[in-house]
UniProtKB/TrEMBL annotation:
Pfam families membership: dCMP_cyt_deam_1
Superkingdom field: Bacteria
Secretion signal, residue range per the UniProt entry: none
Domain CMP/dCMP-type deaminase residues, every copy: 3-136
Identification of the protein by name: Nucleoside deaminase
């Protein structure tokens, strides 16, 4: 990571600080073009918006999917204060962003949270394969 990328990552940490000061969880992210120009920035607003999905990474992925063509999205880098969660990672992947640079890993974050992460949930499946396949078959061709 060069000094210009360190500067962008520090900006993301500053957005996390702003989220915390506003009473929200301390996470912030920004999306930069290949030349380092900041295209968009977001902070966590889960509590202030009353929306469990209001993570900055997810908001930026949605913005990129709406506003950027695929080639431009692929040339971007997201700088974020913490490694994206599974929900955000899925959105980032689907939006076609090219790269993510994060400050804290998930493991490091969990070490800072009393009690660790979120409780797991039960998943059962796959089931009704023939019926479910019939609905999807041919859609992606």
């Amino acid at each position: 990571m060069d000094t210009s990328e360190e500067h962008l990552l520090r900006q993301a940490i500053g957005l996390a600080r702003a989220a915390r000061e506003a009473g929200d969880p301390p996470f912030g992210s920004l999306l930069a073009a290949a030349d380092g120009t900041v295209l968009a920035e977001e902070r966590n607003t889960v509590l202030s918006d009353g929306d469990i999905t209001a993570h900055p990474e997810l908001k930026l992925a949605r913005w990129a999917a709406r506003e950027l063509d695929p080639a431009t999205a692929a040339a971007t880098t997201m700088f974020t204060s913490c490694q994206p969660c599974g929900m955000c990672a899925g959105a980032i992947d689907r939006s076609g962003l090219g790269r993510v640079v994060y400050a804290l890993s998930t493991e490091q974050l969990l070490a800072l949270k009393p009690g660790g992460g979120f409780p797991g949930f039960r998943q059962d499946g796959p089931a009704l394969l023939d019926e479910a396949s019939a609905v999807v078959d041919g859609f992606y061709t």
